[in-house]
């Protein structure tokens, strides 16, 4: 339906044996300077030369067979508008008219040279335009039940990216079926730039993308895999102050500067409203949302070795030293930062108004006790020395001034000390990660505020440090 020309022109030359009135022909056929169009599109399809050998055509028997055909410089213009008859769904829902079910068609081999496919999707604003050149073969196109055509087409897009279409297609079957793999490598991101920029809220100044699609349709069931890989993406000006895309980019971009997006393969691809750029933008929107809600989960999705998100560590109350468990968590964080070089970490230390205060108070009381013990020892020594002297010297009363009498004050823990504790925890983390784990200091930012968590506060325990992921 989407390819329904109403006007035709070209030069036909045939050599062989023809029988009339039933019209049967056997021989070779050549059509040059062919053009087919519609009232809206004068050049819908064309080719420079099509040459077919071993052609058998029989109108009485409703038969057309071609052993070998060569198609030089064919051209196809595919304009997709809002009308259902002219959409992606038109490709995947072809049906053979009942009036032609008894026809017999077989094209055994077609060699295609430098075919040009122009696509324009007017459902998008601005319209998506792309040009692809393909060469290769299509074998075994036939409407005999169970006959599957073999596609082997390779070429390049207008931006010199490699393009290939390989697989099996039930082209002329009563029920459409296919198992096709399409691949695009090194395509300039400019082809989808207008739609990406609307979604991510940033100008995209450069980048490339690869696409790998395996599409399977059988018995009206659609399955497959579909991935987009963006590489070397560079962002320009932001169009929104609250945009999360830089973080999304950092969370998903690996050491090779590539970002993989998996698109769902569903029955939607056969619907009249399906749009490939729209599918990409919807997936990006979902990723941006995930980076806002659960950035660690998004970053660790491809790293099953890290079982728990390294988003915080818990300190022993009153301490700033790192436990072995803390160091293990920080090593997992190091792994994440190594695999995602665009990420940074904001370190926010906390102190518990209850546990940390009690621990610091216990430390101070221990110091006071030791001082008191030392003071008592001094007193005892002075008194003992004085008692010994009394045995050999005239009796006199020891001077109280010679004996230390001051008792240490009862200790207290001020809020400033808890603030210092929280900040020192941040410092301990940064020192360990820069010195031991060799993470660049400019990727680690201490909060330096030293927040105190009240005793009755909900959520995590207060004697901890939290990590927040950011983008460079």
Describe the structure.
- By secondary structure, this protein is an alpha+beta fold.
- It is 25% helix and 39% strand.
- It is built from eight helices and 18 strands.
- The strands form two sheets. Strands 1, 2, 3, 4, 5, 6, 7, 8, 9, 10, 11, 12 and 13 form a 13-stranded mixed sheet that branches. Strands 14, 15, 16, 17 and 18 form a five-stranded mixed sheet that branches.
- A hairpin with a 4-residue loop joins strand 8 and strand 9.
- The two termini are 50 Å apart.
Compose a concise summary of this entry:
The protein has about 475 residues and is an alpha+beta fold. Strands 1, 2, 3, 4, 5, 6, 7, 8, 9, 10, 11, 12 and 13 form a 13-stranded mixed sheet that branches. Strands 14, 15, 16, 17 and 18 form a 5-stranded mixed sheet that branches.
Can you lay out the helices and strands and say which pair or pack?
Elements: E1 7-19, E2 24-37, E3 45-58, E4 63-72, E5 75-80, H1 89-92, E6 104-121, E7 128-142, E8 149-157, E9 162-169, E10 178-188, H2 193-200, E11 202-218, E12 221-238, H3 245-252, E13 258-262, H4 276-293, H5 295-299, E14 312-314, H6 324-339, E15 343-352, H7 355-390, H8 415-435, E16 444-446, E17 451-453, E18 464-471
Parallel strand pairs: 4-6, 5-6, 15-16, 15-17
Antiparallel strand pairs: 1-2, 2-3, 3-4, 3-5, 6-7, 7-8, 8-9, 9-10, 10-11, 11-12, 12-13, 14-18, 15-18
Helix pairs in contact: 2-4, 3-4
Protein name: DUF748 domain-containing protein
Keywords: Coiled coil
Coiled coil: 350-377
């Amino acid at each position: 339906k989407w390819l329904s020309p109403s006007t035709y022109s070209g030069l036909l030359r045939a050599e062989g044996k023809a029988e009339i009135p039933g019209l049967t022909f056997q021989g070779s056929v050549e059509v040059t300077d062919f053009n087919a169009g519609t009232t809206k599109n004068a050049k819908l399809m064309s080719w420079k030369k099509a040459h077919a050998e071993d052609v058998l055509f029989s109108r009485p028997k409703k038969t057309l067979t071609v052993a070998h055909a060569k198609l030089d410089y064919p051209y196809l213009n595919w304009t997709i508008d809002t009308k259902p008859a002219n959409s992606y769904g038109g490709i995947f829902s072809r049906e053979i008219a009942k009036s032609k079910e008894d026809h017999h068609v077989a094209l055994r081999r077609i060699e295609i040279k430098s075919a040009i496919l122009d696509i324009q999707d007017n459902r998008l604003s601005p319209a998506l335009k792309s040009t692809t050149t393909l060469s290769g073969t299509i074998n075994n196109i036939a409407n005999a039940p169970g006959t599957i055509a073999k596609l082997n087409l390779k070429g390049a897009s207008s931006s010199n990216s490699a393009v290939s279409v390989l697989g099996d297609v039930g082209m002329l079957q009563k029920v459409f079926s296919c198992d096709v793999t399409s691949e695009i490598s090194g395509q300039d991101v400019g082809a989808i730039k207008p739609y990406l920029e609307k979604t991510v809220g940033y100008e995209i100044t450069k980048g490339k993308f690869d696409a790998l699609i395996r599409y399977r349709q059988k018995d009206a069931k659609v399955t497959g895999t579909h991935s987009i890989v963006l590489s070397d993406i560079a962002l320009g000006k932001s169009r929104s102050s609250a945009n999360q895309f830089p973080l999304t980019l950092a969370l998903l971009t690996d050491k090779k500067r590539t970002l993989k997006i998996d698109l769902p393969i569903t029955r939607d691809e056969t619907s009249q409203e399906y749009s490939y750029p729209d599918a990409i933008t919807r997936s990006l929107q979902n990723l941006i949302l995930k980076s806002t809600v659960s950035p660690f989960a998004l970053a660790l999705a491809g790293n099953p070795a890290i079982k728990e998100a390294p988003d915080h560590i818990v300190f022993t109350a009153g301490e700033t030293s790192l436990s072995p468990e803390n160091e293990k968590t920080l090593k997992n964080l190091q792994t994440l930062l190594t695999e995602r070089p665009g990420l940074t970490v904001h370190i926010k230390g906390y102190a518990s108004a209850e546990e940390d205060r009690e621990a610091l108070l216990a430390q101070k009381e221990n110091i006071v006790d030791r001082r008191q013990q030392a003071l008592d020892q001094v007193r005892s020594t002075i008194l003992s020395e004085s008692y010994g002297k009394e045995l050999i010297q005239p009796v006199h009363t020891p001077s109280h001034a010679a004996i230390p009498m001051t008792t240490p004050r009862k200790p207290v823990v001020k809020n400033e000390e808890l603030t210092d504790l929280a900040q020192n925890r941040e410092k301990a983390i940064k020192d360990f990660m820069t010195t031991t784990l060799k993470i660049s200091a400019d990727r680690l930012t201490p909060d330096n505020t030293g927040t105190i968590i009240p005793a009755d506060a909900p959520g995590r325990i207060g004697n901890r440090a939290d990590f927040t992921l950011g983008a460079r």
